[in-house]
């Protein structure tokens, strides 16, 4: 397991800020992605590492994930004739 860091949130102008330890390897000017989770936790990574993060998630799926394929879903026919973006065929 990796080392755990603790930090305090503070007010900076009209925003909230979080001081990150240098040991995390994030440098001034780096773009980061912050992903909130349903349980209230967050994940944070450098935007330049997004592909690595995505590929790391690949192994997180359960062995039977999509074992039966996507399966087709019922979809309504779309009326492309009148140019109306929301027009569905009856």
UniProtKB/TrEMBL annotation:
Chain spans, region Disordered: 67-90
InterPro entries according to UniProt: SpoVT-AbrB_sf
SUPFAM superfamilies according to UniProt: AbrB/MazE/MraZ-like (SSF89447)
Protein name: Antitoxin VapB
Source species taxonomy: Bacteria, Pseudomonadati, Pseudomonadota, Alphaproteobacteria, Sphingomonadales
């Amino acid at each position: 397991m990796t080392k755990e860091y603790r930090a305090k949130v503070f007010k900076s102008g009209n925003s909230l800020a979080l001081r990150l330890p240098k040991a995390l390897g994030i440098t001034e000017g780096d773009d980061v992605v912050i992903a909130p989770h349903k349980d209230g936790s967050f994940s944070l990574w450098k935007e330049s590492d997004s592909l690595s993060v995505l590929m790391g998630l690949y192994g997180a799926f359960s062995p039977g994930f999509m074992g039966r394929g996507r399966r087709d879903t019922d979809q309504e026919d779309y009326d492309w004739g009148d140019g109306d973006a929301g027009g569905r065929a009856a």
